[in-house]
Design a protein that fits this description.
By secondary structure, this protein is of the alpha+beta class. Helix content is about 35%, strand content about 30%. It has 10 helices and 11 strands. Strands 1, 2, 3, 4, 5, 6 and 8 form a 7-stranded mixed β-sheet that branches. Strands 9-10-7-11 form a 4-stranded antiparallel β-sheet. Helix 1 runs parallel beside helix 2 and helix 2 packs antiparallel against helix 3. Bound molecules: adenosine-5'-triphosphate (ATP). Adenosine-5'-triphosphate (ATP) binds next to helix 1 and helix 2.
């Protein structure tokens, strides 16, 4: 095998709770993660030269060791003594720095792809350990589907498949720093938390209406004041027929869940025109 083509899919959070502070500086999280169909294309090819070469459709994306796809290839080559290099082409469709784990998903795809391409037979557990070194969301991106993520995000429990729904993603142009969002959260008292167990029960019962009406992300308490468009987008999702709406991860992307494709498509068009934002994407729940 000389090359491999992969789809690195985006994720949304159905819930995101911060349940404590850890000694290592990270927050103790409890969140329900869900893969969506939207993906970056990741092409990996063996080359004779002993280095990693990256190419992307986004000219401003770093293509050196700052890129998570590069880091993934690098760590595998070093750890398993691979002298051959790789050429990696990233065709990005997932909005960058959006709370959709685009970089983490590219990273997971390269870990998975290198394992296959070089016949390394790395176990799931070992690959997950390497993944965590590269980012908190990377182990989940390797697993995909519906999962409860705890700890930094690496303690994963597979959940039953989330019922199908159409998903409209809308990303404000403004970026939010993940570090700044979590830091701001430390300065406030939270008066409510997601009912994670209730959402898990709703998933088990295949009750999309109950899932949608209990979406919750504690980070909205600080992200909405920082970027008021998040709150406005949420209102607009509901006005345009969403069953429920939430900010994904540390934002700023807002998504709406819809039970009908046409309704979702119309909502996406209305929101795109109303808010004059480029990144409005219609996708759907993806179960691996
Ligand atoms: P998460 O939800 O895991 O916090 P995110 O969706 O908020 O992720 P990413 O799209 O992963 O954010 O990008 C965050 C930063 O990572 C960007 O500043 C970007 O420059 C850098 N980055 C490194 N590698 C990649 C990659 N392959 N794709 C996108 N961004 C990357």
């Amino acid at each position: 095998m000389n090359y491999i083509n992969l789809k690195a899919r985006a994720k949304i959070n159905l819930t995101l709770d911060v349940v404590g502070q850890r000694d290592d500086g990270y927050h103790e999280l409890k969140m329900i993660m869900q893969t969506v169909e939207l993906y970056d294309r990741v092409y990996i090819k063996k080359i004779d030269k002993p280095y990693i070469k990256l190419k992307s459709n986004l000219e401003w994306l770093p293509l050196d060791s700052r890129n998570l796809a590069y880091k993934a290839a690098d760590i595998i080559r070093t750890k398993y003594g691979i002298s051959q290099g790789v050429f990696i082409e990233l065709h990005k469709t997932i909005p960058v720095a959006a709370g959709l784990a685009g970089g983490s998903s590219d990273c997971a795809a390269v870990l998975y792809g290198m394992n296959i391409l070089f016949g390394l037979k790395i176990s799931r557990k070992e690959l997950a350990d390497i993944a965590l070194k590269l980012g908190s969301d990377v182990p989940y991106c390797l697993m995909r589907g519906t999962a409860l993520a705890e700890g930094r995000g690496e303690i994963l429990t597979k959940l039953p498949e989330c019922p199908n729904a159409w998903v409209v993603l809308a990303k404000p142009q403004m970026s939010l720093s993940t570090a700044a969002v979590y830091k701001a959260l430390d300065d406030i008292d939270l008066d409510s938390h997601p009912n994670t167990e209730l959402v898990i029960k709703a998933i088990e019962d295949k009750d999309i209406l109950k899932v949608a009406s209990n979406l919750s992300n504690v980070l909205e308490n600080v992200s909405i004041p920082m970027c008021p468009m998040i709150g406005k987008l949420k209102k607009s999702m509901i006005c345009n027929g969403a069953l429920g709406t939430l900010m994904s991860g540390s934002g700023p992307t807002v998504y709406g869940l819809f039970d009908d494709r046409i309704k979702a498509q119309m909502a996406a068009e209305t929101i795109k025109n109303e808010f004059k934002i480029r990144d409005v994407i219609l996708t759907k729940i993806f179960n691996a």
